[in-house]
Amino acid sequence: MSIIIDNDTKLVVSGLTGREGSFHGLRNKAYGTQLVAGVTPGKGGQDVEGTPIYDTIAESVQEAGANTSMIFVPAKFAAAAINEAIDSGVDTVIAITEGIPVMDMMPTYWKAREKGVRLIGPNCPGVLSPGKANVGIIPAQFFDQGRIGVVSKSGTLTYQIGNELKQAGEGNSTIVGIGGDPIVGSDFIDILTLFEADDETDMIVMVGEIGGDAEERAAEFIAAEISKPVVAYIAGFTAPPGKQMGHAGAIISGSSGTAKAKQEALEAKGVRVGESPTEAAQIAVETLRSL
Amino acid sequence: MDLLEYQGKELFARHGLPVPQGSHAATAEDAVTASDNLGYPVAVKAQVLIGGRGKAGGIKIAKDSAEAHEYAGEIIGMDIVGPHGEGPFKVHELWVEVGSDIESEFYASVILDRSAKKLMVMLSRMGGMDVEAIAASDPEALVKQHVDPIEGLSAVEAEQIVAQAKIPEEVAGQVAQVLIKLVEVAQAEDATLIEVNPLIVNADGEVVLLDAKVTIDGNALFRHPELGELPESADQDPQERMAKEKGLTYVSLDGNIGILGNGAGLCMSTLDVVAQAGGRPANFLDAGGGSKAEAIIDALEVITSNPEVSAILFNIFGGITRCDEVARGIIEATNKIGLELPLVVRLDGTNSEEGLALLAEAGLDNLHHEATMLGAAKKVVELAGN
After folding, report:
1. What is the C-alpha to C-alpha distance for residues A280 and B16, in angstroms, rounded to an integer?
2. Is B353 a catalytic residue?
3. DSSP code of residue B171
4. Does B349 sit within 8 Å of A159, measured CB to CB?
5. What is the mean pLDDT of residues B40-55?
6. Which of these, B128, B135, B137, B125, lies nearest to B59 by C-alpha position?
7. Active-site residue (options: B97, B107, B157, B325)
8. A139-289: same fold as A10-120?
9. Which of chain A's ends, N or C, has fewer CB atoms near its CB within 10 Å?
10. Which chain B residues in 147-166 lie under 8 Å from chain A, judged by CB atoms?
11. Residue A157 reports pLDDT greater than 60
12. For residue B296, how many other CB atoms are within 10 A of its CB?
């Protein structure tokens, strides 16, 4: 089954006529994703290598049957594009754009919740269901099809862990990059819920990093609601307090939100936490093979 | 981006919030001129991005020109250490403001609550001390209320918060107005944190915002050009300044192993793995997605400008980033800046074979290739020494 995207995904890309949007949108198509439309206001009627362009996302839903939207629009205009997608009739919006102001995302987050549209990101690498569909910028060659679900705040760190799993002979049902921004559409709990219900997922790897309390809340949720084994990795043990490390979300002030606090919260609920990406992958492989 | 107190107060004043009249000063002489104009007594306040200035001697009340000169001279150049050992922060500038007769001190803040995805207003009638101390000593005295993300804070809600915090009735209306305006400031100026501590009532019964701690969302600076032009206020170290000019995400740490990774998560993980191997990272440097050769050259220039660095680790997992581009950057930079420090390179992912072939061909004596992240961390620790 996999989660969020699969063979039935019909993708519309906002920003398909742009440099990044066309590069990644066409790469997703080459992977096998059904790319049905692009959207750029004022360019309706054109096409990008055979994919029709519409003026609005709603038109692409009505005319091309799009059900999943990917947002590759510059940060200044991205929240408006996400809002348009939420109103267009698609079920899922995957926002890759980084650098969206948090005050823009706050109302957008609530709008998506209210309309029941699944929002992934922003500032995320997207979603990959190996062998089925790829929406975003995740390099698919480092992942095989398999039984491990991955949910992560970080892009490259996910590639690192996915590749270690692949080298160990294991693969993934779906890899979900939820993004590292202070406000993202879906957090660990949302994705853990989907993996729990997915019959192609036997266990879950969760990759977190310093900042916020999403990992701590996930630990509580795992104990209460998740029956499948979860293995975690947390980045940022050596990050000094009060300093921002790249992702807008990766900032720690005082004691809460530290990597150590997250590790302790997870371990207290029986989640095994790897010391390094390599160890996390090893534990995941061991766990999967002992099921 | 954190604002200094005076920058925060200027922001408040633009939104019609009551702040004491004051003036910015960079020298003791400026401070005296400003104080004479304002009239005594004045508060001479160190402008650094850390709490606990008062306890550290960074805030003094001067009752005449002689005292203003004396205190300003003492405070400029002072090193201020934060209450949790942060810093030291050297004082380069002052804010001189009209002294206030404080009748009572409250605490007010508006912060982004990431978990709730809403702004949260906090108010306490106990001001002047750390919010942690307020929360610990009397949790009931700290009233917290989420703000509707679409509607903002209504007058009724603000009045309820004020009543619940047991703010004296004479000033309840003024405090409620302050809360409403603070929420407006947060939304209009993209502030993810506004802390006013203390929010005072003066001898005339007026509510005044006596301090300002404001953090602006760096992603929103494009719509606040006036804030983007603020003078560089942090006591920045030379590498951080240089990195900023080159558009790199760099954070100074206090070790001797220079680190470069691609992606914030992988880079943080690299710091952790190096520390686990017994090493001390000198920095965090995220070369970002799609790193080109030029970015690698810039990054190496920044890392090697730190005299503490005795070895460098490159940890690259190419997704969008192409490892051959990274290898080209390493080779060009090594030749350009005459790099002799040991360089441990782990290149994996997109075009890694091409990248490794380029490095082998270049035959750099100081370069060591490792196949895994853990192997690379161990190697660089061994080469860096203590």
Report:
1. 53
2. no
3. H
4. yes
5. 89
6. B128
7. B107
8. yes
9. C
10. 149-150
11. yes
12. 25
Q: Answer for the pair A83, A91: CB distance below 8 angstroms, yes or no.
A: no
Pick from B150, B284, B319: CB nearest A156? B319
Contacts B2 to A, Cβ<8 Å: none
Domain residue limits, chain A: 10-120, 139-289
- Among A30-44, A235-249, B42-56, B268-282, the range scoring the smallest mean pLDDT is A235-249
pLDDT digits (tens, 9 = 90+) for A62-95: 999 999 999 999 999 999 999 999 999 999 999 9
| Percent above pLDDT 90 for chain B | 70
Taking every pair of C-alpha atoms in chain A, what is the biggest distance, in angstroms?
A: 56
Per-residue pLDDT tens digits for B219-270:
999 999 888 665 554 556 788 888 888 888 898 998 999 999 988 899 999 9
Interface-testing mutation among A24, A156, A263, with chain B (most B C-beta atoms within 10 A): A156
**Among A78-82, A253-257, B340-344, which stretch is predicted with the lowest mean pLDDT?**
A253-257
The C-alpha of A63 sits at a distance from chain B's nearest C-alpha, in angstroms, of 32
Name the B residues in 185-214 with CB < 8 Å from any A CB: 186-187, 190, 192
Taking an 8 Å cut-off on Cβ atoms, the answer to whether B317 and A156 are in contact is yes
- Does residue B264 belong to the interface with chain A, where contact is any CB pair within 8 Å? yes
Q: Which residue of A has its CA nearest to B152?
A: A107
pLDDT for A254: 41
Kindly state the DSSP code that residue A168 receives in the 8-state scheme.
T
Instruction: Pick A10-120's CATH classification: 3.40.50.880, 1.10.357.10, 3.40.50.2300, 3.40.50.720.
Output: 3.40.50.720
Q: Is B294 on the interface with A (CB under 8 A)?
A: no
Taken in order of first residue, the domains within chain B and their CATH numbers are 1-19+101-233 (3.30.470.20), 21-99 (3.30.1490.20), 238-384 (3.40.50.261)
Per the CB < 8 Å rule, is B249 touching A246? yes
* Cβ(B257)–Cβ(B268) below 8 Å: no
Which residues of B are less than 8 Å from A107 in CB distance?
A: 149-150
Question: What are residue B286's phi and psi, to 5 degrees?
Answer: -95, 110
The answer to whether the beta carbons of residues B384 and B377 sit under 8 Å apart is: no
Spell out the CATH class of A139-289: alpha beta
Beta strands of A220-267 (E only): which ranges?
A: 230-235
Assign B301 to helix, strand or coil.
helix
